[in-house]
Amino acid sequence: MKKADLISYTQDFISLLFQGLDTKIVRSIVLFGSVSRGDFDKNSDVDLFVDLYDEKNSDKVEEIIESVKFDFEEIKKRKWNLRNIDLEIICTVGNLLSENWKSLRKSIESSGIVLYGKFNDDEEKTHYTMIKYNLSSLEQKDKMKVIRDLFGYRKEVNDKTYEKKGLVRELGGRKIENGVFIIPNERSKEILDYLKEMGVEFEIEEIWSE
């Protein structure tokens, strides 16, 4: 198993998690432990810290995580078991900035990998969320609405030109190719909430760009 494969494996889990989780309550999701350090083996767990703004939401988030783990089994069988990847994902939930997690926070600061949100920002690079979306489950009228809402449109009526930017440009993002765009990480929640509202299937990946 390669570290990059395990990160992709974990990102699949996070993408599924965000289908049912209100992203507004999540500050970040951080990979820590043996996988982030690179000293894992076939018996290792994938350790995630789901960092919340308010720990009062912990119980609710933990319930959602348990439900998502059940659904994730199908993805594992279909995609990851063929690659001999079947590590258990262990999620710790809380407010990482609180005193309750002070000792763990030090460990995460030294070797953790941010998979969503902000933690130890790199000042020399811009943090983006890359979103891969799939409209195949939507009706045609809803597909057109999503495309217009995301990327805007331009049309001429009676010698007048009407133009709308679309959410991606308004939030500082850009289209990469069909079905893929990037958005500044700090604005990604707005896009993810919209996609969930419209019933759009999507996957996310965190990237850094000069």
Explain the overall architecture.
With about 210 residues, this protein is of the alpha+beta class. It has seven helices and ten strands. Strand 6 and strand 7 form a beta hairpin. The chain is globular. The two termini are about 30 Å apart. The model has no long low-confidence stretch (mean pLDDT about 85).
Return the structural class: alpha+beta
Mean pLDDT reading: 87
Report the CATH C-level class of the largest domain.
Alpha Beta
Q: Kindly state the number of beta strands.
A: 10
What coarse outline follows from CA principal-axis ratios? globular
Q: Helix and strand string, N-terminal first?
A: HEHEHEHEEHEEHEEHE
Percent of residues in beta strands? 25-35%
| CATH arch. level architecture of the largest domain | 2-Layer Sandwich
Task: Name some characteristics of this structure.
single chain; 210 residues; alpha+beta; Beta Polymerase, domain 2; Alpha-Beta Plaits; 2 domains; four-stranded mixed sheet; four-stranded antiparallel sheet; 7 helices; 10 strands; globular
Summarize the structure.
With 210 residues, this protein is α+β, with helices and mostly antiparallel strands.
Which SSEs are present, and which pair or pack?
Elements lengths: L2 H15 L8 E7 L1 H4 L8 E7 L5 H23 L8 E6 L7 H10 L1 E5 L8 E9 L5 H12 L1 E5 L2 E5 L2 H4 L3 E4 L2 E5 L3 H11 L2 E9 L1
Parallel strand pairs: 2-3
Antiparallel strand pairs: 1-2, 1-4, 5-9, 5-10, 6-7, 8-9
